[in-house]
Amino acid sequence: MNTDFIQRHPRSPFLIRVVWIGVLVLVMIGVGSVLGRGMFIDDFAARIEPGRQWFMETLDRDDPLAVERAADIAWLDRRFAAHPLATWLHILPGGAFLLLAPLQFSSQIRRRHIRIHRWSGRLLLVAAIVMAVPAFYFGTLMPYGGLGEAVAIATFGSLFLLAIGQGYIAIRRRQVARHREWMIRVFALALAISTVRIIMGVLDYALTPAGYSPRWIFVISVWTGWIITLGAAELWIRHTRPRALPFP
Predict the structure, then answer these.
(1) Model confidence at 90: pLDDT above 90
(2) What residues make up the domain containing 147?
(3) What DSSP string describes 196-224?
(4) Is residue 171 in some structural domain?
(5) Do 44 and 37 touch, CB atoms closer than 8 A?
(6) Is residue 4 situated within a structural domain?
(7) Closest by CA position to 102, among listed 31, 13, 196
(8) Mean pLDDT across the stretch 154-158?
(9) What's the confidence (pLDDT) of residue 160?
(10) pLDDT tens track for 189-227
């Protein structure tokens, strides 16, 4: 007989634990940024600069563009302060999405509370779309990193909306496995902003003494952070994807 059956890829408990730890760290970074900008909408970036300066001085890293950086940070804060409604529409749904989306991947919640899973999924999709609109607004119309940032936001923001649409279509067609894969991509694209912040810290340490401006470091970090996070999501999807094997 050539009847096919589905065999799930064996999952290592250690690998699952590592992935969840990484996800939780990125969620905490993202939520921390939301809280910081929410509490200090006018000067959040300026408030964390003393900590960054102390870190650079402790590691004996020179900043030849300190004056330019101060002006850039002030511009960044003014951008959010001048558009408080857009800022709140971005950070509030964004923070809620980062906090609640991991629960959607819990098999126990899906099995025991399927109605909660479905309704929270609908709310999270709405939150994702709402937070994406101000992201396009800030990132393409007034990008901190210029054209490099605008192209990145347009590219990955479009992928984000595409993934949302594909995930919704899949579940409406009862294609559960396909729905899961698209929602992993959605979550990865949202988490990537936290990866960007980690990479910015590393590149700040490595490239600032060489004369790279804060805006260039930001653009490099945006592209690198999204590519790495989305690439990691694709690897996880392939690792956990059920396989069709011939049944003898």
Answers:
(1) yes
(2) 13-240
(3) HHHHHHHHHHHHGGGT--HHHHHHHHHHH
(4) yes
(5) yes
(6) no
(7) 31
(8) 97
(9) 97
(10) 999 999 999 999 999 999 999 999 999 999 999 999 999
Query: Could you give the CA distance from residue 158 to residue 117 in angstroms, rounded to a whole number?
Result: 25
Q: Which amino acid is at 233?
A: A
Any domain includes 248: no
What are the angstrom distances between the C-alpha of 199 and each of 181, 192, 205?
A: 26, 10, 10
Backbone angles phi, psi at 4, to 5 degrees: -95, 150
Is 246 part of any domain? no
User: Any alpha helices (H) in the chain, and if so which ranges?
Assistant: 13-39, 44-58, 66-81, 84-100, 107-112, 114-136, 146-172, 176-207, 214-240
- Cβ atoms of 184 and 176 within 8 Å: the answer is no
pTM greater than the 0.70 cutoff:
yes
User: Parallel, antiparallel, or unpaired for β 4-7 and 243-246?
Assistant: antiparallel
